[in-house]
Amino acid sequence: MMNVKISGAGEEICEKDYSILFFDSPFAQTTDKVNNQEELSKQKIYSARLSRHRIAAPILRMRVRYEQLPNSKGNQNGSSLKAAVAALLLFVIVSTSFVLYQDAQNMRNAPRSTPIIVAWTKFFSANLKDSLLPSLRNCNYRCDFVDRKELKILNKSAAAYILHGRDMRLTDLPKQSADHLNVLFLLESPFHTGSEMYRVPRDYFNATMTYRLDSNYFYPYGHFQPRTPNDTVGIITNEEIVAAVRRKKKGSLIFVSNCHTPSKREKTIRQLGKLTEITVRGRCENELSVDNKTKSISCKTDCSDDALIATHRFYISFENSNCNDYITEKYFNRISELLVPVVMKRRIYEAAGLPKHSFIAVDDFNSLEDLGIYLNFLRKNDTEYLRYFEWTKHFRKPNTYVSNALCKLCEDIYKGKKLRVNNIRDYYEKNQCF
């Protein structure tokens, strides 16, 4: 029970200096007192919390000339003021105690040594570790991210395993265990998850790391960052936009190599190609050529030809699948190159929080004929076309493949968070595509 005395002008309001709760506690230890590797993981928690405790401590040491407050006898205002001071002190003590309790709980759950996260599979032909490592940079929590060979050399237990859904094999899976997390990493739509997803035990995974907004660890193809007055990187100026638009005399452009898709985009492209000019590059150019309207050009060199990008106004950003949150580099890369994306479903893009007037959606129009007329109109009207670059006043160029997913996983390991996906197939496929 707190013992409070009425203080003189130079005395504390409390007999006990409650700052000892903070500065004589283990939270106040500094890194130069840590002499072994096992304490470094706890040190992360100590140092992260210390700043909050230092804010609260001076409040508890407030000096109040209590006798100078209005006398409570016959003075209702004086009584109210004293009650307010007492209530403030009580609030600070209770809230601080709660913070200390939470931190103590986190300490108990904190690993005794630096946690190890393992990239168990490849990422198609790429190294999964190299692909994900940037999402651990500038992280407030320390985890070692290794591949399988490095784990074998370390000869230690892992806290989490990350498996790319398209590269995992049923005969080569880490065991299920309460001592580690199995995390599914997948950036493909439900139509392209790979056969192993249908064979792995439904409850095998503890967590997901995908493009979906409801993933445990969100890993989008790209994202926008708000622009600030001091930004110098990733800024597109109005002068750049106007100069680029002057060079854009052609209609729509598309690079496409998958000719038969669940979204039936090839059918829409053929129909739209009868109504407006579309330049097709890639393996599907012959299949998608229609009459003389669709200008198919053989892909002999670089399919992402800068000259073509510079001279076209629109990019046909139709995905191979129309699924919730599934927005790939087809949108993010091309909008950075000052092409206006034409997409299939507006609700998918707005649900992801993308700038509303940064793209044109097929389902905004009553028919493809109306869409074709509108694209032809914008091709000749610079003023209206420029409205699709208003987003550059509020956002920087979108970043692609940038995420803090691995850092969030590392944080959850420190907090001892228990995760479980009861049915991975239902999670990934049920009611996701249309």
From TrEMBL:
It is found in: Golgi apparatus, Golgi stack membrane. Residues 113-222 form the Fucosyltransferase N-terminal domain. Pathway: Protein modification; protein glycosylation. The keyword Transmembrane helix applies. It comes from the Eukaryota. GO terms for cellular component: Golgi cisterna membrane. Residues 246-418 form the Fucosyltransferase C-terminal domain. It is a single-pass type II membrane protein. GO terms for molecular function: fucosyltransferase activity. The keyword Glycosyltransferase applies. It is an enzyme of class 2 (transferase). InterPro entries: Glyco_tran_10_C, Glyco_tran_10_N, Glyco_trans_10, GT10-like_C_sf. Its EC number is 2.4.1.-. Keywords: Glycoprotein, Glycosyltransferase, Golgi apparatus, Membrane, Signal-anchor, Transferase, Transmembrane, Transmembrane helix. Its main location: Golgi. Belongs to the glycosyltransferase 10 family. This is Fucosyltransferase. It comes from Cylicocyclus nassatus. The lineage of its organism: Eukaryota, Metazoa, Ecdysozoa, Nematoda, Chromadorea.
